[in-house]
Amino acid sequence: MSPTRFLRHRFRDRLARPAWLAVALAVPFSAVLAAPLDTPLEAPFDNQGQACPAPGQWVTDDGQRRSTAALMPELAERRVLLLGERHDRLDHHRWQLHTLAALHAHRPSMVIGLEMLPREAQPALDAWTAGELDEAGFLAASDWQRAWGFDPALYLPILHFARMQRIPLVALNVTPALRGRLAAQGWAAVPAEERFGITPPAPAAPAYRERLTAIFEQHADRDDDTAGLARFIAAQLVWDRAMAVALSDAARPDTLVVGLMGQGHLGGGDGVPAQLDDLGLTDHRSLLPWTPTGDCAAPTEHADARYVLGDESAFQPADPLRLGVLLEAHSDGVRIVSVGEESVAEQAGLEAGDMILTAAGVDVESPTDLSAILRRQAPGTLLPLGVRRNGVTRERLARFPPAN
């Protein structure tokens, strides 16, 4: 899931995270974005002589300040609502949960769409909402770690809300492999049944193309990779279209569909909103969380309404430990593409081309496996890594600094 973690499958958490990431996902860079588009869109608010909006208020696109009680009845009448997020932000997910609960009070007939999981995970979602799986069973059945990789604890309150209220959950995404295949080969080369009926996307608007180009250039290995840029934009459009089609398919006259996704997929009216328009579903609204900063100057990215958050940083979970490597999947484990300067990996003697086979004695079959192990690692500890170089396997010790 997120254009950073952000080129998710070579880069993880693109704009939301530092350039040297703990892992990058398992598909080649050309196949898909690093992370679901969760571009930071927070910006100050233009107070025009007034005080900054208070936490708990909504600010609409025309500058009005609304209460939740006043705004929710209007929003609940829409066909589709899109709730953006930074994937690693606890306060964003709490806001999503509270908004879902408020909307559900006005319109109990609801469907919740999740960017986090591909369509193959739909049976697991159905079993979860039916009460047939516990948390561990759901995470295993949905293959959460490989499909998404972010800490499930951030999302479990929302999943439990849906389960308690028996609200259907819909997988909006497709696998990185299918995204890459559609982006590289085109729709004609992939039978309709293998692409879940997803139709070709509308072209990217110039402003969206510029934003995606800027993201690509932050992470490209060279400046003149026009073919790589084209694949990158094509993959992003596949991602947006796949989610829009799933939302459109779930929309019924008597049902409110709420999609949860990285805010980069909806900021400025591009991405998923544009693809919904192309599908003929224009009755949608985009909502974003927002923490005002600085002089409260107005946000530059369009959203139909923004919910004002206070400073919740004290409750934000600590960032996971990072090796400081760029990884790609390999048949034998994961291969190091590059190593960051002065990183934990460099200090451990890791080099580009090394194969990481094990971590903490556990087999590493994909970059997401390593992510899960790093999330469990405490600051100030050692992580033994089984590393193969030039056919010779030896142990390397990654020494993580103590917490600040």
UniProtKB/TrEMBL annotation:
Keyword annotations of the record: Signal
Leader sequence segment: 1-34
Domain PDZ residue range list: 323-391
Entry keyword ATP-binding: no
Coiled coil keyword on record: no
Organism superkingdom: Bacteria
Source species: Halomonas urmiana
The name this protein goes by in its record: PDZ domain-containing protein
